[in-house]
Structures are given as C-alpha cells and as structure tokens.
Amino acid sequence: MAIAVPLGLLALWEVLARLAIVSPRYFPPPTRVGGVLAASLTDGDLGGEVLITLTRLVVAFAVAAAPGVPLGLLMGMLRPVREAVEPYIAFLFPVPKIALLPFLLILLGVGEPAFVLTGALSAFFQITISTLAGVQTMDPRLLDVGRNYGARGARLFTRVILPAALPSIFTGLRLGIGLALVAIVAVEFIAAKSGLGHLVYRHWQTLSTPEMYGAFVLVGALGLGLTRGLRALQARTLVWQEDPGRL
User: Fold this and answer.
1) Phi, psi of 101 (to 5 degrees)
2) Where are the alpha helices (DSSP H) in 137-161?
3) Sign of the dihedral through C-alpha 197, 203, 208, 209
4) What's the CA gap between 171 and 160, in Å, rounded?
5) How far apart are CA 142 and CA 160, in angstroms?
6) What is the largest CA-CA distance in the chain?
7) pLDDT tens string 85-122
8) How far apart are CA 223 and CA 208, in angstroms?
C-alpha cells in the first residue's frame, strides 16, 4: 500500500498531463520529469549540484550534533546546567532559523560558513531538546538498579544513562537532519549560487518545470536516504530495542 498509493497518483498525473486536463507546462508528465532527471544525472552537472548540497548538509549536521548531544545530556543530568541554558533554548527554538540568515551573512559574509551554520542551527536545537527529553524521561528505577550493582560516575553514565537516552537521541538526529536539509535548500534558494535549492529557483525563473520537479525529487530522495541510513544505524546500535530476543 505504501508504494501503490504514490504509483497510483503518479499514473493519474501522467494521464491528466497527457490529456492536457492539467497544463503540461506547469505539471509535466512524470515520465518526462524522469527522462530529464536521468539525462541530467548522466551528463554530470546535476550530480555535482547534489554533491554540493550533500556536503553542506553533512557538515551542518556534524556541527549541530557534536555539541547538541553532549549539551542535551549535561542538561538532563545536571540541573544547574539545565536551568542556565534552557531559557535560551526555549527562546531561540521557535525562531525560524532561515530568519537568521541575514544576520549570519552580515557577520560571516556571503559564503559557505553562513550557509552551513544556518542549517546547523536548525538541527542543533532539535537534537539538544530530544537528547534532554531522553534523559528526563528515563525510568528512575534504572538508576537505582545501576547503583545497586555498583555503577557510579562514568560507569553509571555509559551503562545506564546513555543507553536509556539513545532512542531519543536517534529520534533527534533524524528530525535534525531533516530540518537541516530544509534550511540548506532554503538558503540555496535565497542566497547561494549552487546546490539543489539554487537549481529549483533557477528553473522556476525560466519555467523549466521538468528540471524543477527533478530537483524536487532529488531533495526528497536525499532526505529519505539519510533518514533511512540513521534508522538503520539505530537498529544496529540498539539491538536490545529492535530485537530483545537477540540479547
């Protein structure tokens, strides 16, 4: 069913466009979009744009996750840290991070640092909040059991707290990479001269709709692939959660 519904919608779109019930200029048949996409990937130009967007996204995600996970863990374990940092996170989290782009462009100039940092900020808050939630919602009895077995300090953290928080951490990472992708594409649409977002904008300006839809497809495929990759990593890391019988 998950595949049948999209295929049915694509088939309907194809028929409506071929019969000119909807304007083929604005809604080209999916087969035409697929042909243009395949040709663009073959000649190498589109592949380069995908690589640019992917590079920006990976760097932004790393910049967000590296401090976001430790900060969330510290906030969950240490009340003074949480009380000091949480008001700022609550204040900044609802702000659309793309709104910070003009400030970052003034501060850093037009270039990769501003583009990447916009995407990193979009992911950072989600990763931090999810990690914090993972620590706060863990069963307190797990701590008691760990202490009863002699776990203290770093051992208690690595054997009890971190494993209990990992499901929420992975959820935050998956959501964060999606938010980072949205921000990166938006930045490319507005300010960059390369990447998939720029392709969407350029083809929209010239009404090259098959190419525009092709760029849309690649953005979605990029997000789907990375999210599935993180889910697979979670399944391999949290064997005890995915398949308790294997323990």
Assistant:
1) -60, -45
2) 140-148, 153-156
3) positive
4) 19
5) 7
6) 73
7) 999 999 988 888 888 888 898 988 888 999 999 999 99
8) 23
Instruction: State the Cα–Cα distance between residues 52 and 47, nearest whole angstrom.
Output: 9
Instruction: Using the CB atoms, write b or e for 126-142: b if 16+ within 10 Å.
Output: bbbbbbbbbbeebeeee
Q: Which residue do the tokens 């980072």 mark?
A: 180
The torsion region of residue 95 among left (phi > 0), alpha (psi -120 to 50) and beta comes to beta
d(CA 94, CA 55): 26
Amino acid at 117: L
In eight-state DSSP terms, residue 22 is S
Q: ∠173-50-63 over CA atoms, to 5°?
A: 35
Distance CA(233)–CA(38), nearest Å, equals 30
List, for residues 13-39, the tens digit of each pLDDT value. 888 888 888 888 888 888 888 888 888
